[in-house]
Specification:
Blueprint: H1 2-53, E1 58-59, E2 65-66, E3 92-94, H2 97-103, E4 106-109, E5 113-127, E6 132-136, E7 141-145, E8 155-156, E9 161-166, H3 175-198, H4 204-225, E10 228-229, E11 232-236, E12 241-246, E13 253-254, E14 259-264, E15 268-276, E16 286-293, E17 300-301, E18 308-312, E19 322-330, E20 340-353, E21 355-357, E22 362-364, E23 367-375, E24 378-389, E25 393-398, E26 405-409, H5 411-422
Antiparallel strand pairs: 1-2, 3-24, 4-26, 5-15, 5-20, 6-14, 7-9, 7-13, 8-12, 9-11, 10-11, 12-14, 15-19, 16-17, 16-20, 18-19, 21-25, 22-23, 23-24, 24-25
């Protein structure tokens, strides 16, 4: 019985082992057939792809195919075109010749030049002595401005009416009318005296007194006669210039000799700068100055305005901690006396200094840059370290070398082109 059971178990084990082995061999054969079929199909597809598109492809052992782009990346594309993603120098900015002409782009070649030591401060423009006159009232009365819009800064000409003074409604009456009456009366008395003195009816002394009264009245009348109008006595400007300041208001009462307005010829001006005492030892080395008025963006150079240093010293009131430095110059441009201004005092010229126009510099988050021209249509953004500024030019301590070509006009447009070129462009590849 035991022998039968053992024999049955051995037979069953052999049967199971045979089935397992058969299935394994069958599966291996099926996998091999499938692999060979896939390889043949892929291989045929590759050759058909080559035939249609004319490209060489690398074939791996498993039948896959690929092609390499010029940048070393592998791309599978439907059309089979190579894509070059190399962008050259990433710092280069393309700005065409046509764009440069439209914006009026200008370039300056860097070269070492003399550059003065600069002390930046503030100051005020003043009219030079002798170039101003004060217009005063020639009679008592009520002021009426000839042109209500005549304000500070208005231009006037010699003989132009500034105000009219009328005393018609005042208690003492119109002085111009009174002067006329006094003149006509004195004239009649003098003519009568001439006849009487011939007949020796009056003495020579009485005749001379009559003539004196006549001459006095005549002078007073003539002084006002040319300026008399139906509305009163007009007061005119004795010089060409502009109204520096009005000292009376419309309808105000004035007395003879009272200032009405100041007229400046605006031909020769003064620049008065206030310098801190810490620069006292440098004052004697100051030779000239540049200045930029608060109302204007333009920088004026005294060297271009026939300017000269007048004086420097302590403040006249003795209470200021600043040293006044005064220059005089021709008002060639449209410079307004009384205006406050930035002042760049120039002293101790230094040789072989690299500098660029102030318009060349741009600032970004505390860093400063210029744009260099590499060739006619390519530019580069260059970081620099600025030094002193004389208002017109800025000293460059590092970042530039002699021979560099710096953009001086059209900087903003080149900066926009740099921002535009830095923006990533989208590429679409169909796989």
């Amino acid at each position: 019985m035991k022998t039968y059971i053992v024999g049955s178990l051995i037979a069953m084990a052999l049967l199971i082992s045979g089935c397992y082995s058969g299935n394994k061999n069958a599966s291996s054969a099926d996998a091999k057939d499938a692999h060979e079929h896939l390889h043949d199909h892929s291989h045929d597809h590759d050759h058909d792809y080559d035939h249609q598109h004319g490209h060489d492809h690398d074939h791996s052992s498993d039948g896959a195919h690929s092609h390499s782009a010029s940048d070393g990346h592998v791309h599978s594309t439907a059309a089979g075109h190579d894509h070059d993603h190399s962008s050259g120098d990433a710092d280069e900015i393309h700005f065409s010749r046509q764009q440069a002409e439209v914006v009026g782009l200008e370039v300056e070649q860097v070269a070492p030049t003399p550059f003065s030591y600069v002390i930046k401060t503030s100051g005020q423009i003043q009219a030079a002595q002798g170039d101003e006159v004060v217009i005063a009232a020639t009679s008592n009365g009520i002021v009426s401005f000839s042109n209500p819009s005549l304000t500070d800064g208005s231009a006037v000409k010699t003989g132009q009416s500034i105000v009219t003074i009328s005393a018609r409604n005042l208690l003492e009456g119109d002085p111009s009318t009174r002067a006329k009456i006094e003149f006509e009366t004195a004239e009649k008395e003098f003519q009568r005296a001439e006849l009487l003195v011939k007949d020796q009816i009056i003495s020579t002394k009485e005749f001379e007194q009559a003539r004196l009264r006549y001459e006095t009245a005549k002078t007073a009348y003539n002084a006002q006669a040319s300026n008399m109008t139906v509305n009163g006595v007009k007061v005119t400007s004795p010089i060409n210039g502009y109204i520096k300041n009005r000292m009376v208001a419309q309808g105000e009462y004035v007395s003879v000799g009272q200032p009405i307005a100041t007229v400046s010829q605006n031909r020769r001006l003064q620049l008065r700068a206030e310098l801190s005492e810490k620069h006292y030892k440098t004052v004697k080395n100051i030779t000239s100055a540049n200045f930029k008025p608060a109302y204007d963006n333009q920088v004026y150079k005294l060297s271009d305005l026939n300017g000269r240093l007048l004086s420097f010293g302590r403040s006249a009131d003795g209470q200021s901690f600043f040293i006044p430095v005064t220059f005089e110059f021709d008002n060639i441009g449209d410079i307004l006396p009384g205006a406050f201004t930035e002042v760049f005092l120039l002293a101790n010229p230094q040789n072989n200094v690299i500098s660029v126009p102030a318009s060349s510099l741009t600032e970004e988050q505390g860093l400063y840059f210029v744009y260099l021209q590499l060739d006619e249509e390519h530019y580069k953004k260059q970081e620099v370290t600025p030094g002193q500024s004389d208002g017109e030019r800025i000293q460059i301590l590092s970042g530039l070398a002699s021979g560099d070509k710096v953009v001086t006009k059209g900087v903003y447009q080149v900066k926009l082109a740099a921002i535009s070129s830095a923006m990533p462009e989208g590429h679409t590849h169909n796989h």
